[in-house]
């Protein structure tokens, strides 16, 4: 075995660079964060070959003097921590970058040039670094701000090049990084150009709707049309943002974003909180879209968890988690019976040819005839005259005659009834209602299931959880840590219907817990599995959320079995009562599994479907 020796400075720099600069997107992230910290209001990014050949970032920030340029390429030089700091500020970080590793790390593996001019300087200065070698400082042409040019990334460490993906994949990674930063900072204009082609441009957003305008630009107009505002404050922390309606959902969680103190992060805490907030609105394989922004005291946050600063650690994770869950549920509650606008679009798409669904081709032949120019003075054929007369008679009879439910079909609902008036029941399963500007089709079972479920939740909130005393108490053996965690929170569990106490030592140094009472709706459930889940969640987040979610899951099951089933004939009074209850009940736009309870089509949509528009 060789003797211990010191690594060369060049090797040290390249090892450090490997931690900070993993791929072109990593370099772009560090450089754009520097531009944001410099107070830029315009940041332009250009790429060549996915960032492998060229990364060019220009900003109009405060710029750097010649002396600062010399320091900027040295390791652990920073403007983000005060001079003389003894490390205390490392746990009160208020900027995006602070380690002073990005520029020297990039310079160690690429050809780096930085051109910068501060406001007070008459001209710009440029410094160049290649493979870790400082090539010196020189005057250069340049406006206010900073221009960073990175060429031939990883030329000094060619082995790293073999692990990069295709140009397209690397460009996509950069695209994602920049969009996340743009989402976090709507007050800054961003643009991205790849191989001479403009990928996107986001202008500077101002005004009260700045955040939503930027989110809509990035996540799409459908998100903007189907998002509700989120707002909460607790113990000095402030949460705000927008969350998509449950019926506007996706197959993956890619459209879930969390920004903490202006820093986009990926955190498992968000995934768990979103699952808890939406768990009684969505099926397990569907995910909502949302963007949340958390402002919190930097002392309550550790951003030093990962070299790339993409992860954070909260001092009180339970507080943040419960805050997110509560804020999301409150926001979704304000949506009332709303369903996503995309539900109608998907319904209309099902009727259009070429989508795999069966469509009667004669419908579109007829639609084409409606679209053709018509001469109102041209004489009608005998067939056309007969068809027109028959349609007119049928329409007059339909509008004037009372229907089988005793309600006049001629009475049109006004705008104060969003779900309209019931006109018919189709196949003893679907309610057809006429609104003032279209019609609604309601799935009677799904709608009533949601109504029953919401009533059950309200009853539990107002009257508490009914408890069932077990004739023979359950004895559950847990690991020592899990058992002590459960016993320490016994009072909180009792509020949720679970009465537990220490029974004594178990086998193999375990703790035996006696379960005396359980929530009435959970009688017969697996107490051991529930206690283990709760102990794990309490240790991780500080709260017994697993039980709450299990209770809601059981409520959903009970609601499903006690609601109006498909195949039951309803009177017009029953149908209208269901519609009015839906209008007055939160979350009535989707069932407990995330499916829409109704589809609304406007007259304009129907006319387009038949080629009248």
Describe what this molecule looks like in 3D:
With 613 residues, this protein is an alpha+beta fold. Strands 5-4-3-6-2-1-7-8 form an eight-stranded mixed beta sheet, covered by helices on one side. Helix content is 38%, strand content 23%. The termini are far apart. The protein contains 20 helices and 24 strands. It is globular and about 85 Å long. Helix 1 packs across helix 4 and helix 14 packs across helix 18. The longest helix has 20 residues, at 444-463. The chain has three domains: 9-202, Heat Shock Protein 90 (2-Layer Sandwich), CATH 3.30.565.10; 210-333, Ribosomal Protein S5, domain 2 (2-Layer Sandwich); 336-372 and 401-613, formyl-coa transferase, domain 3 (2-Layer Sandwich).
Structural class: alpha+beta
Amino- and carboxy-terminal Cα gap: 82 Å
Strand neighbour order, sheet with most strands: 5-4-3-6-2-1-7-8
Report the mean per-residue pLDDT as an integer: 80
Instruction: Count the E strands.
Output: 24
**Poorly predicted runs of 5 or more residues:** 356-380, 383-409
- The level 1 CATH classification of the largest domain is Alpha Beta
Largest sheet: 8 strands, mixed
**Beta fraction:** 15-25%
Shape, please?
globular
CATH arch. level architecture of the largest domain? 2-Layer Sandwich
Q: In CATH, what is the homologous superfamily of the largest domain?
A: MutL, C-terminal domain, dimerisation subdomain
* Helix amount: 25-40%
Rg over CA atoms, rounded to whole Å, is 31 Å
């Amino acid at each position: 075995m060789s003797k211990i020796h010191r690594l060369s400075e060049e090797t040290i720099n390249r090892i450090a660079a490997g931690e900070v600069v993993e791929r072109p997107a990593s370099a772009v992230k560090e450089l754009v964060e520097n531009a944001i910290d410099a107070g830029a209001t315009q940041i332009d990014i250009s790429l060549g070959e996915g960032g492998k050949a060229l990364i060019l970032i220009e900003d109009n920030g405060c710029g750097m003097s010649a002396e600062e340029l010399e320091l900027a390429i040295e390791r652990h030089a920073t403007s983000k921590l005060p001079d003389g700091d003894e490390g205390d500020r490392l746990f009160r970080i208020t900027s995006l970058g602070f380690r002073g590793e990005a520029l020297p790390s990039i310079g160690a593996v690429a050809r780096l040039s930085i051109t910068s001019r501060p406001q007070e300087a008459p001209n710009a200065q440029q410094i160049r670094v290649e493979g870790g070698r400082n090539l010196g400082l020189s005057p250069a042409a340049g406006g206010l701000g900073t221009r960073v040019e990175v060429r031939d990334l990883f030329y000094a460490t060619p082995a790293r090049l073999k692990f990069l993906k295709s140009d397209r994949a690397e460009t996509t990674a950069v695209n994602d990084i920049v969009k996340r930063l743009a989402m976090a900072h709507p007050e800054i204009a961003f643009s991205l150009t790849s191989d001479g082609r403009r990928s996107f441009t986001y202008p500077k957003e101002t005004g009260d709707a700045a955040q939503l305008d930027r989110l809509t630009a990035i996540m799409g107009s459908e998100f903007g049309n189907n998002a509700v505002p989120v707002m909460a404050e607790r113990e000095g922390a402030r949460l705000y943002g927008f969350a998509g309606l449950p019926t506007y959902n996706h197959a993956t969680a890619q459209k879930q974003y969390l920004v903490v103190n202006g820093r986009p992060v990926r955190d498992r805490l968000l995934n768990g909180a979103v699952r808890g907030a939406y768990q009684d609105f969505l099926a397990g394989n569907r995910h909502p879209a949302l963007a949340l922004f958390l402002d919190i005291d930097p002392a309550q946050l550790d951003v030093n968890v990962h070299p790339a600063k993409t992860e954070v650690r909260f001092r009180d994770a339970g507080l943040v988690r419960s805050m997110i869950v509560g804020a999301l549920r409150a926001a979704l509650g304000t949506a009332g019976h709303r369903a996503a606008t995309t539900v109608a679009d998907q319904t209309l798409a099902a009727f259009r040819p070429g989508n795999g669904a069966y469509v009667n081709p004669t419908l579109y032949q007829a639609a084409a005839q409606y679209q053709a120019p018509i001469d109102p003075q041209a004489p009608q054929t005998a067939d056309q005259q007969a068809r027109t007369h028959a349609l007119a008679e049928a329409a007059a009879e339909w509008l004037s005659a009372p229907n089988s439910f005793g309600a006049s079909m001629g009475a049109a609902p006004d705008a104060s009834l969003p779900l309209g008036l019931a006109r018919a029941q189709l196949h003893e399963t679907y309610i057809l209602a006429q609104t003032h500007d279209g019609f609604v089709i309601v799935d009677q079972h799904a709608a009533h299931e949601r109504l029953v479920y919401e009533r059950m939740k309200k009853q539990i909130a107002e009257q508490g959880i009914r408890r069932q005393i077990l004739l023979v108490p359950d004895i559950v053996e847990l690991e020592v840590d899990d058992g002590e965690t459960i016993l320490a929170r016994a009072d909180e569990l009792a509020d949720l219907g679970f009465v537990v106490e220490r029974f004594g030592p178990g086998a193999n140094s375990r703790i035996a817990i006696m379960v005396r009472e359980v929530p009435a709706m959970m009688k017969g459930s697996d107490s051991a599995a529930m206690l283990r889940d709760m102990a794990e969640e309490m240790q991780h987040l500080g709260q017994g959320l697993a039980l709450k979610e299990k209770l809601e899951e059981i409520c959903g099951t009970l609601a499903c079995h006690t609601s109006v089933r498909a195949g039951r004939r309803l009177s017009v009074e029953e149908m209208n009562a269901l519609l009015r209850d839906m209008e007055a009940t939160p979350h009535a736009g989707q069932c407990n599994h995330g499916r829409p309870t109704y589809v609304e089509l406007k007259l304009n949509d129907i006319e387009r479907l038949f080629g009248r528009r």
